[in-house]
Amino acid sequence: MNNEKTNILLVEDDANLGSLLQEYLSAKGYNTKLATNGKEGFDLFCKQDFDLCLLDVMMPVKDGLTLAKEIRVNNKVVPIIFLTAKSMKEDTLEGFNAGADDYITKPFSMEELLVRIQAVLRRSSKQLSGNTEQAEFGVGVYKFNSDKQLLDYNGATQKLTTKEAALLRLLCIHKNDILDRNFALKSIWHDDNYFNGRSMDVYIAKLRKYLKDDAKVEIINIHGKGFKLLVNS
Amino acid sequence: MNNEKTNILLVEDDANLGSLLQEYLSAKGYNTKLATNGKEGFDLFCKQDFDLCLLDVMMPVKDGLTLAKEIRVNNKVVPIIFLTAKSMKEDTLEGFNAGADDYITKPFSMEELLVRIQAVLRRSSKQLSGNTEQAEFGVGVYKFNSDKQLLDYNGATQKLTTKEAALLRLLCIHKNDILDRNFALKSIWHDDNYFNGRSMDVYIAKLRKYLKDDAKVEIINIHGKGFKLLVNS
DNA sequence: CCCCCCGTTTAACTTTTTTTAACAGCATCT
DNA sequence: AGATGCTGTTAAAAAAAGTTAAACGGGGGG
Fold first, then answer.
1. For residue B128, what pLDDT is reported?
2. Closest CA in chain A for residue B101
3. How far apart are CA A165 and CA A170, in angstroms?
4. Which residues of chain A neighbour B116 with C-beta distances below 8 Å?
């Protein structure tokens, strides 16, 4: 997981709508470059790698469909979403043929656009990077693999049960930070009732036993909030 | 590229619309299976490999969102398109979170649906074309051919029975990932009752014996969920 | 046609994992 | 300090999975 912002190329000839969208997307954490026609859009596209293109279909100088085709010549994978004024089917069809990944009809809500952007990005990220769910955790002198449900220490290997591993995994993800009781209950037990809460306490006790050989490792309780896996370095 | 027809799972509770769509899609060259609620839909999904799922959101017995989540547990790549009666934003958002690839609002034209189907299929084939029907699997030091039902290791060859091979095949497809109990039961036994569950446990034991000569290969149980074929590389 | 063989299911028993229960201890607030 | 609600711990009951062997049942050879 890298920390870089997602880069979006927005090509929209209506200056008002354009800057509105740009601001909204920036507020949502996307790095957005704006062009006001297809020609400008293509210039920008050539200068930088984008993660997503939002193209208005109806534009002066060079329309969105033409731009999309040009982009596709150079990049077969970058997601493209069309903004279309009319819901004419021919447009839609042509758009998809030009290699669009989605289209959205004006007028649309910001929220709707955001949802579609996220969906398209999720697809494209699924495509490329193999999902990176961390499985190996270092916990003081121990090494924990949540996939294999194994806790290694000094050559010895302790097999963990499914629930033990799931809970330790959450603690590791939140290492030196608080793991909220209800959050843990909902993600592992899918329900935060009284008995599941007690069950979780039982598992905390088990984990403490497994981890007792390293004094630097400790699971402390935050009264009324949850637990914290402390690892002193 | 093989010549087989594209298989579509259509789940729609309105019988009229359902069969209409089925006929239309068949006319367009798609092989379409129809279910009228989420439960039926999941049963069909377990029994066959589909290239695309078309799910109505509002359905009795089990709704489309729930079904989509279940499908996603077992198959992270098959494209899902929702058919939604209302254009409610919450639905849309929830749908995408459930792993949808697109959604289409009723009423829609057949042509519009077809365009979206083609777009989604184009994307998914772009993703990883060499999909499915794999017969040869490497499992640590073993080589497993699910068509021939043979497990080779170090020159020796172990003949597998039909059920042994089917189960090992599912485990291989989900290698290093969880194979859901119910999914396996429905795929292989077509019914997930108590006795079939015990039968499956018996077969897990058999497979463990066959695979015991490679310490890097292990079938672990995920309590209450299913099994995971671990292969250390 | 009957019987045997083989894959599969059912059964019975064991072990492991998880949940529930009970009680003791501790935190926080008044 | 006393009341109340959380947490720690241990043991039991319950549920799920591991294992082994006998029962079942369909197809092929005698």
1. 47
2. A119
3. 9
4. 96
